[in-house]
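> Could you send the Septation ring formation regulator EzrA prediction when you get a chance?

Sure thing. Input:
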Amino acid sequence: MDSSPRARQAVDDFAALGRRIDEVSHTYITAVDAHDLDRHDLEPSVAAHALTELTKAKDELLRVKGELDRYARGLGPLLGSAETQLARLAPAVERARQALLGASNALDAVRASGMRADDLAARLAALAPELTRLNQGAGRHGVPETLQRADQVLRDAEALRAEAERLPERAAEIDRRLVSLRTRAQALTTRTGSVEPVLSELRRRFSAACWQDLQPVHDQAVVHIRQAEEKLAEAARARDEQRWADATTRLSTVRALLNATDEAVSAPGDRLQRLDAVAKDPQQEIQRTRFAIRDAQRLAMAGRHTPDPRHARPLDDAVSRLDRAVAGLEGRHPDYWHFLTETEAVRRSVARVVSGIREERGAGAGTAGAGS
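Output:
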């Protein structure tokens, strides 16, 4: 039951105690056999000698009985632990057997519905040797090892059963994703056709810097959609062959391709909308950025007579950068896209300053609270 050093010592002590008991028992028996105490003519000196030997043997028996009692008391915790393990053993093994049966039944049900589930069958077959070892019992493999094996078999079998029961749902989910992604690919093919007219509008109305980076969008979208359709076909074959993991992996690739294509195809229209808005009224973007700077400046000055240079310097730089961006709008063909990217960059830099100020003040407040 227990192979710990303490348990091995208990076994050794018991063997030594057994030898000691045999010795004192032999001494007692020898003393009894050496004298015929029933004789009527027993001489007093012989009787006295017999009494001495028997008393000595009795004392030794009492002494070794005390040793045995102390040993029994010391053995209590070890026995309690061993009994606890024994009490766990049979239920643990039975739970493992029932879990294996449940996994086997779930697999049979899935196969009866027309699914091969070969990978699950292989995993179930791999558990057969473990069941054999469980059936061989703790006498051969040890209680702790058998308990550990039973727990592992239970976990593996329950996981297998759950996967088998989810398999029809998994197949249905893959079917739904195939339909959904095919529809999405078709819609993106249609939307890709609108990219060139939008780019033409951008080229006609705005400077080259505002649309040059969008020139490859149409061709890249066509390539990505073709790749997505190829992966969809591979996913459909994997589904038909019941290679569920492969089908799922390919569908994830399709989704990533379509997400990237969706974003790219939307970019020209979004760009045109933003450029139209800023060309019509750049002041809204300017005021939005100036407000962010002023708000950060107020926060930097809160509770101070002079701003911290670590905060003042980047905020001053933000003011200068905004002024340069506004000045860039002057001229015959202003680069509105550069203006928009600059104002966004200014707001991001200002937001970093604000975040840093709040973190420093939050840390300072925490330190003050801890000190008080």
